[in-house]
Amino acid sequence: MARVLVVDEALMMRKTIGAFLLKAGHVVVGEAANGVQAVLAYNLHRPDIVTMDITLRGMDGIKALDKIINTDASANIIVVSALRKKHKVFETLQHGAKAYVFKPFTEEKLLSVVDEVLGATAAEQRKARSAANVMDKPLPARTYHSLGNKAAEKWGAYISNKAGGN
């Protein structure tokens, strides 16, 4: 899953976005409350995705977006903002944002945009999440037989190590 940096002036919004992303299997590698923190956190963590509000104290989201894109032209930045003015949406996309999500938003909307920016459909992401859940469970006995002894032993060792059984 993706490594994400969440940038928003409001702590509650950062926590909400972070919770949605964590629930979907992503990892929040950092949070920032302003543009300066966002640029520093981006350079430190090099996340796969950034969610960025526009309205930030000091350096606003568009300036932070510019600085990040100038450092890394392939940065995946999703603007998440309550500003619904067409010129602001256009401006952020022109400056390199990959998508724009209006506040308020639903969990499904945010995750579908994240999936789209990551280049995967929501169905592919759900399939990957389901597979990840299966990976934490021991295999049924009939599967051990079809895998062969070596593969079954490796799977058993993987599950045992994951459970702390070394």
Automatic annotation (TrEMBL):
Residues 3-118 form the Response regulatory domain. PANTHER family: TWO-COMPONENT RESPONSE REGULATOR, TWO-COMPONENT RESPONSE REGULATOR ARR22. The modification 4-aspartylphosphate is found at residue 53. The lineage of its organism: Bacteria, Bacillati, Bacillota, Negativicutes, Selenomonadales. It comes from the Bacteria. The keyword Cell membrane does not apply. Keywords: Phosphoprotein. GO terms for biological process: phosphorelay signal transduction system. This is Chemotaxis protein CheY. It holds the Pfam family Response_reg.
